[in-house]
Design brief:
Number of helices: 6
Distance between the termini: 9 Å
Largest sheet: 2 strands, parallel
Helix content: 40-55%
Number of domains: 1
Shape: globular
CATH class: Alpha Beta
CATH architecture: Alpha-Beta Complex
Radius of gyration: 17 Å
Strand order of the largest sheet: 1-4
Order of helices and strands: HEEHEHEHHH
Strand content: 5-15%
Length: 147
């Protein structure tokens, strides 16, 4: 979702939002996930446990687009379509077990994560003639994005 929004903004196209945009997600920066996985690999109490790694906060798609607008200094007017059947309205991971068992705490703010992701995509698209395929992303050795 975030990569599609970013690519639309970079290409001066309106992002598509299914529904009213007030649905929320617990967006998590890849660096925080890697940190959590590393901690899980080295925590004795983690063996056999199911542990959520996430950010532990939710943000609406409208708020995400507002943050992207603020970051890029561009007015973003999304195209709203019908909600997709079966879409989850809100999601928020309970990361209390990760905190307790792993000592996990997300380190990257949403604003910083969005900025790092945006600038990576901006450079990748510029270096590839205004297009970005999944092959380009898979070949990159320095992709840091939000999941």
């Amino acid at each position: 979702m975030i990569p599609r929004f970013i690519q639309a903004v970079i290409n001066d196209k309106p992002p598509t939002v299914h529904g009213d945009g007030e649905q929320s997600r617990d967006f998590t920066f890849i660096g925080d996930l890697v940190n959590g996985i590393y901690k899980a690999c080295h925590a004795e109490r983690a063996a056999g446990e199911i542990i959520n790694l996430a950010c532990g906060r939710r943000i609406s798609l409208n708020d995400l687009l507002d943050s992207l607008s603020e970051l890029t200094k561009r007015e973003i007017n999304p195209v709203h379509t019908e909600s997709r059947p079966g879409d989850v309205r809100d999601s928020l991971a309970d990361i209390s077990k990760a905190r307790d068992v792993l000592g996990y705490e997300p380190q990257v703010s949403m604003a910083d994560a969005l900025a790092q992701t945006y600038y990576w995509y901006e450079a990748a698209i510029k270096n590839n003639g205004n297009s970005l395929s999944s092959d380009t992303i898979n070949e990159s050795k320095n992709v840091e994005s939000i999941i």
